[in-house]
Amino acid sequence: MIAVANKGYRAIAFDFRGYGLSDQPLEPEKATFQDLIDDVVGLLDSLAINKAFLVGKDFGAFPAYLVAAVHPERVSGVVTLGIPYILPGTNSIQNHLLPEGFYVARWQIPGRAEADFGRFDVKSVVRNIYTLFSRSEIPVANENQEIMDLFDPSTPLPSWFSEEDLSVYASLYEKSGFRYALQVPYRSLSVDIGISDPKVNAPALLIMGEKDYCLKFPGMEDYIRSGTVKQLVPDLDIIFLEEGCHFVHEQLPHLANQLIITFLDKHSTAAS
């Protein structure tokens, strides 16, 4: 945010409903990605912004692309990190092609992740997730394990993620809890929200780390490298960062910032 603001852009970050400092919905178990689309458009309306670039990391890629598909007049361009355009629905993530202990499948079971996380304080859960998910292997538990059991307490935090970072993230989840975060994205991934024309015609940039575990999801690497993803996003540039992991924006912030600013400058000029 500081990097793009220093280049003259207005940078806005917000907590989606159910996250961080935002209010909790009364019935989070009914939430879908449609709610996040509504949040983005509602935010733009509340700030009297007609059109914006949307930048999304991981599951933030879903609403970024979905807003561009449903409300193309509001989106100047899309940048996503770690995840390409994937439509929510029954085929979004191929759980059946991975072992039963695949973390997405485990976290989709109501109550299971809550019980798993509940054995630890919030700070430990966030620490465990950052450590586990910065590896190049997909987190998969054995039959007699939970996902949090995969964490080795002797493993240090990644060098690019400080104790101060951890404390800030933990403080936000201590307020919000994990209830909504488990519903959206994990438990609503398979919910088709009824988008009849999913194509995104806005210019887009996908930044992936070569060591991102998501590339090992069934079909994911081929979907990106073969260009199949461009059937949904025709004006898409794809950049792989050799040393990048799933948290590429935190691991390599200067490089990620440079790529994003170059994209913004190019398409801001084109738009104007």
TrEMBL record:
Pfam families the record matches: Abhydrolase_1
Gene3D superfamilies in the cross-refs: alpha/beta hydrolase
Transcription found in the keyword field: no
Transmembrane segments: none
Record keywords, A-Z: Hydrolase
Stretches assigned to the AB hydrolase-1 domain: 4-216
Gene Ontology molecular functions: hydrolase activity
Coiled-coil positions: none
Family: Belongs to the AB hydrolase superfamily. Epoxide hydrolase family.
Name of this chain's protein: AB hydrolase-1 domain-containing protein
Natural source organism: Cannabis sativa
